[in-house]
Fold each of these.
Amino acid sequence: MSTEPDSAAEGIDWRSESSNVEMSRRDQLSELYEQKIRVPAVVAWSDDRTRLGILILSVYLFMALVDVLGLWRDPSPNQADRFLRPFENMQYPLGTTNSGVDLLALIIDSTPFILLMVLAGGVWATTLAVAVGTLSGYKGGTVDTVITTISDFFMAIPGLPLVIVLAIALSPENPILLGVVLTINYWAGLGRSIRSQVLSIREASYVEASRTMGTSTPRIIIKDVLPNIMPYVMVNFVLAARYTIFAAVGLYFIGVLPYSGQNWGVTLSNAYYQGGLFSMQALHWLLVPIIAIVGLAFGLILLSQGMDRIFNPRVRTRLTGESESVTEDTDASTTEMI
Amino acid sequence: MVLVADTVGPSADRAPRLVRSPLYRYIWGIIIIIFITVYVVSYQYMGSDSIPDDYSDVISRRDMLTIAGVSGAAALAGCVGGSGSDSGTFVNAYTGNPADLHFNTSAIQNYRWPAGRAVFAPFMKYSFTENEFLRGALDDLEIDGEEVTLTFRDDLAWDDGDEWTTEDLDVQLQLAEKSGSSLWGYLDDYEIVDDKTARLLLSGPTNPQIIRFELTNFLVDTKAETHEQWLDADESEFLRWEWEDPVASGMFSFVSKDRQAFEFEPNPEFYNADNVDIDTFLIDSYGGNTAQHQALMSGTEADAALSLFAPPEIVDRFPDHVVEIQIPAKWGYGIVFNHDDPHFGQREVRQAVAHVIDRELIVENAGPRSKFVTPTPCGIAPRDQEYWLDDWYDDFETYGAGSSQTEQAAQLLEDAGYSREGETWEDSDGDTIGGEYYSPAGWTDWTTMSQTVVSQLNEFGFDFSVSTKPTNDWFNQYSNSNFAMGSLYWLPGGSRSSFPYFPLYYQLWEEEIGGGHNYREKADSEQTIPDRDGGEMTLTPLEVTEEIARQSSDEEARPYVQQAAWHNHIELPFLGLVSKYEQSWVTDDEWTIAAEDSPNRQVKWPQFWWVHEGELQSRT
């Protein structure tokens, strides 16, 4: 069946009722826009939490953009008075540190780094977990045994100590490498739960049907299995991303990761050791990175809730989102999945 | 498509819908979190400051330890309550789990100085107040040419009732040789004269100061009876030995230890036993600096903290009866250059760096309370420069302690063939001066100082970025000569850094990074530098520095110190920027403390030496 052309899938969803022969390029594009962009966007936007999540993440993306385009000053010592409080001087809206570094500049400066790291961590952990989980779950047999044994091994290694050792050994300064190192054994546990979901899905009648039709394994996995576990995967993608931030901040805090410039974890550690915990004067120094970290984690979680709706075909078919019941359904399904 | 929908649908229908999800729920959540934070923070403040009596109904940590200590149930400290009198119990806050620690002072692991200082009498001490040596167990020290005669106190004894004799010293010196003590770098041999007297035979002319500083590292911590067994053993076995039940020669006898605290009681056999007015002496384990800060803020939990850095914002929160004792650390933040680097191998570039950096600004950023700048970067500890340089002092170039002398720096760079292209300096090949400037992770104040240095240099037209690395990596960069310039302490630290030979030699030879700064060859070869009168002088820096160690008095050593320091501040093997005080904390509400002008005031460490001298006693 490998001869069966997949080309239709490139432009139009295979579920589409339109025939590719009759469609103009413009139609194809508009179909694509409708299916891949507008529908998910409308579905996502219809939920308060997702909306808030998207807004929060946009703020971070905006900050990253500001840094990349160089629209805000770079952090450097003595650029302002020491220990300015937030909003005391609107040139330095979040205040300054003990050496007169603009806190907003500090936060903005490390945003692209953090976002890249978080993305790398999430993508690495979930991609590997999905690959491993679906393959071992669907294939079964020896493949399953081998993969399960390997992931058992990785699950048995305590995560944080391993990461600390790797961080010291590799001294990762590249955000992408760092993201991968931090989630180095995150995939094992996730892969395991995906495997168990796949085990039940592969017995489903429609998968059975595909198999009897002689559809190839990759195609079954992609077309029949993946859409079912996608909500779960997306939620976990976000959780892995969140884990990456927390792990990175923790490791920067205890000083086992190398860095140039200061990022949120380093700022937090500096503030902590300079009395941020006890002194009102330095409190904002501690709070600003905390809010940045919590905000990003919060935004990611809200987004993950919305992801469920986007991948839930039932919600998508009811799309327009004007009906209250739609909202209710998806809330419940997310909870269930998690 | 439909099939897919079905598989998700049923679960959606089944699940109960618990809550709706309007935006206001999140806003409320955030408001509640903020409210809790503000409440916790304000409680924290009131508890330690405005309403000290808040603690009266809660058993204090010290009460707990007193009770636990007296009843011998110290193991329970930290989880049981009770009430009792504080008087007579002195609590030192320190970090480290006593259960893992022991009393073998030569051991490579798990020996910590506070426990040792409590039970072992020191040979002698160095007073930073008076810049003089104070005698402990030594009654007399005579240095005559290449012979050093040590006479110990007649009443020096062990707490098991045995008298201390030179038989114990014999074992101690043999073990010191076995474990590679630096004293043996100056000794050929020693001889025992009588029960309380011994003579060290030096291997050559040696400055008496060096011997005195070496002896300040010695404690009466070796009893022949317990230590003889190691004379024939392998060195590594001795270094691994964990001595759990020490025989004391100092103020206190060891009572017990557990995860929470070391407990000591007065040693009746101690020669100054009358000075000791503390019933129970505790070295109490706290989780880290912040926990110790908190203990001091409470004003009741701890009576003292040993060598604890506290930034100004935290010091402001300490109650008035917490007194800070600052002792010069003779250690501090500086810059090491790679002398094989195409840029920093040139004297002019190093001098330009020195001119550009505003040292006062570094201190203001990183700790105005405990740090201070060096008047001139010349390889001698800041507070000792005036004494040693004497009439040369005013001729030294300061490189601008409180300003960024960019004009002089620019002139130097131009002289060296650099030119300014736009914002940056370039050499004749168009290369900029820069790279990675290494700084150790986790040393918060160093991070701030590195950032200040780099921002000043970059503003001037260099192109550096701070690269913060775990301490090990940071050190390896230098050992492997894999750097252009970076942060490294410019004084080796400890009281012996007061003697110029040690820091000057350290900068030329740099044992700790194995000469990774590539200056050894230059140090050991003849150099011509400008002299004080605008002429030139020729010297071999290493030889001049080594001469300091061979002179028999400060006066004889001074000309060599002046020359070596002069060379150092022209050549700048290192660039000294900042030095600091060690901060120790004592409380004077229940205990007496040494007066500001007392020679005992700045002695490492107050909590021990003051007890030894009777300056720390109960007020009641």
Amino acid sequence: MDLDALTGCLASPACLVTQTTSGFIIGMLLFLVAVGLTLIFGVLKVVNFSHGAFYMFGAYFAMTAYQLSGSFALAVFCGAAGTALLGLIFERVFMSRVYGADVLMQLLVCYAFVLIFDDVVRMVWGPEFRSMGMPAAFQVAPLFIAGGVVPPYYLLLIGVALVAAVILGLGLARTRLGKVIRAAAHNPGMVSALGINTGLIYGGVFALGGMLAGLGGALAAPVRSLTPGMGFSVLIESFIVTVIGGMGSILGALIGALLIGMIRSFGSLGFPLFTEGLMYLFMVIVLVIRPTGLFGKEVV
Amino acid sequence: MQRTRKPGISRRATLALMGTGAVTFATPWVARAQAKTIKVGMPTILSGRVAQLGTSSRNAVMLEVEKVNAAGGLAGRQIEMVIRDSKGAPQEAARVARELVNTDGCELLIDAEASSGAFAVHEVARDLGVFCIHTNSETSALTADPKQHIPNAFRTARQGVHDSIVGGSYAAAIAKTKGLKKWATCAPDYAYGRDTTGEFTLYLKRFAPDVEIISESWPKLFQPDYTEVVTKILQAKPQALYTCLWGGDLTSYIDQANIYAMFSQMEVFAVNMADYTALTVVKNLPKGIHSGNRYIKTYPATAENAAWGDAYKAKYNEYPTNWSWENATAVMLIAEASKKANSADGKKIAEAMRGLTIKSPFGADGTVTMRAEDQTLIGYAIGWGTTIPQEPYVPDVKPGDWKTILELEAEWKKSKGYA
Amino acid sequence: MTELRAGRTGEPLGIARDEARSQRPRYLDVLIGLAAFGVLAVLPLFFGSKALLDFVIRCSAFGLFATSLNLLVGYTGMISFGHGMFFGLGAYGFGLIMQRTGVPVPVAFVATLVITTIIATVIGAICVRLKEIYFAFVTLAFQMLIHSTILSWASLTGGDQGLRGGIPRPVFLGIDLSNHVHLYVTSCALLVIGLLLMRQIAQSPFGYTLRMIRDNANRASFIGIDVWRARLTIFVLAALFASTGGIVMALFVSGAYPEFAYWTISGEGIFINMLGGVTTFLGPMVGTVLLLILNDTVTRLTEYYGIVLGIVILFFAIGLRKGLMDFVVEWYGQRRDGAGERG
């Protein structure tokens, strides 16, 4: 424990700004992955345990596309589009068969695919660590904003994550499609009776969730090493985020992700050896006080 | 009627099922007679995040075993390797090791497990009395702690404390000439990271007493995002940074620190940088990172070492890793000890191996020695230098002095209560 | 959440019918248990294979753990994702007591169970008021918290390297647990006793209270059952058997490692239950044997273990849609009913 460092930082404006920004950066990256998880739960009532695998595939697709084409934009597009397709196939062929079944059966199907996907990556790309490399456009000196240091690449990440949050939030609240999706989440039987193809909606939502995870993976590829099983730690963190924020709530995912970012950022100063434990402790406290999470709806 | 019959059926079905299972799976449990070939078991990690540890260990072992077999095997018996995945779980490592000996009839074990897996296999070796050579665990306590000591277990992995002594004295020399007084450390939060960092700072301060550690970071092992660690270190404004992150964690860290322009603001000492797993992977490798050698084919700068590295590359289309040389050394030592004892028996090999010095491409002076007192490897090439972003990556390595290493190691053992 | 509920009270957990029929005199259970123990105990006389004994010891550890999890999942409808923490607690508690104090083995055994009771009561008191998936989440969070604590508290637990240097086992009552056969017979005895006790719990009036809570907690509380207390009681009882499984595992590997308290152990427990089936008492035991055989044979054959295991899981989850024992029982029931109609 190093509480002096924590209070010292809280007293110094420069440190406060820098650590807050890094908490923000960590949080927004996390949000991109976590929001897909919460979306899928909100509509399909499925805890997508294989979400981390989509993040992994996003990163690997992006790396391969980048190596072949040299274009970063194309790499990100391939990462997102590839995982969207994968999500659609996964939902239509496998997940759709276990909707009526026990929640544990759904988890098992996801778990099976975590195992399979990790081995597939190992077969195709090999077991070794890989790195995509930072695109030349972003190999520039970091910016100084209000006394805090921010690399331009992270500005891009935050921008993408914010745009995704706004599009999702407004799209679900305002558009006709958003209304149909919310209706399907609430009462699929009724939506189906109105002549709307719920299978298509479910597949689409799963594809969207997978795409967001893949997008997160593709954007993380330049700064994180790629390895089979890389999705796992990201899955656990996203999971904590969605549970804290409330399963199914997009705003909750955003707030939860930022809270975790701040805990990591300031926790590493004050409790360098127990930062991880701090996150679980926070999760326990939230669950005990408010089982549905900060922004989750009360379950009847 | 229904009440009494149904459960009986489920029970009978259970028994029948168990019976079938027992018959089907009893076959591999029938102990096999001693064959002409000698089986050597190797539990290792072939899946998950550190699968590369297992694959590069396996590659090196197979490369050497071929040579040994071509030269007639162990006392006339051809070696047959039985290599199994423990998935990195210690209970699986223990299970696999026991099964290799009890079921598959392996007479020797090469334990290529990391961290807790190695300790679990060590307990199996203690229990079964089988010859066992640890190849990947660098934790000093595995052989330094007399409580761990058993006559049938050896280690060919490098040791954390050796690295730290050499690293500490190398870093202290630079700290003095460049006036680096304020240091930060960043290490993965597990035994290897904690011990190595503690020992490094101990020797750094010993050789350069006015050094001060102003910031410590302990990211979790396999953490994907190091942003908070990077900014914390930048905040502290140290003149130098020591890190013992390795593999994919190190490459992630470098990529993330790079966009904060960290490497232009401080001298960086990364003990695990000079290994091809990291050197060839990082796309924008900063110039001038100080690193200890893990495995590079240009150090020791001998024809034997270069030839070994090239032969490995020719066969597997990738460069060897630190784990590769450690495993290759295990096979070389077993072969020599078997020759000396003129036997393939584990007990006799163990006897012959204590204190054995063999010629080795990885030796600081062309040889490595299995020290008799604690049955661990000494005399291997160990040195530090600075990186450049292309081959040979670390052009100029300053060798560590084994005389100093051994003196300080003895002192360290005393301070730990090990000797 | 309505769908979730429908699923959970629906087919896979609708056990009451089968269970109601499976009442039989208590002494019969004991006799079967004794017979099973007898068969297991004489095995070493006929098979010289140490690997077979190892296999049965591991089956005991995981079987106790998985069956105790089924008391929660199958009988009470409480899906715990954190049951593995008690497995780890048992291993660490027992290992630490033996290493640090040198008390006789039975004392350490009882002390470990006492510690488990205390910790399980505290954690359970917080967890059991939560329902359904939130219970699963909070148990998982506690598991991860305990795992991080084990990793961080290196001076006590040895951190990520676990308890090193072996667990001493002084001879007691003529039993020497460092002897392979003695350890084997002791594990079998613990397994059989554990299963018998759990069977008694499941068949007792309390066991039927649990089933009622599973099927409809509100109805149970209307007729005066203290649901919270019943759930807490079974949570603690299940923790005790999981802890015993952990002790057997600690004796087997002669150490304790943080992986024992990791969520993957809980995941494995759930998987074993789904594999064997949750509607029969012995389902988890069958699942344990199946998973261990699967694990041992597949790792011998390929390093792409994940793909093979994944496909097997898919076969059970999408193909059978239930555990093996559930499938067998149902299939046999249908066959017999068909025959009954004809006759």
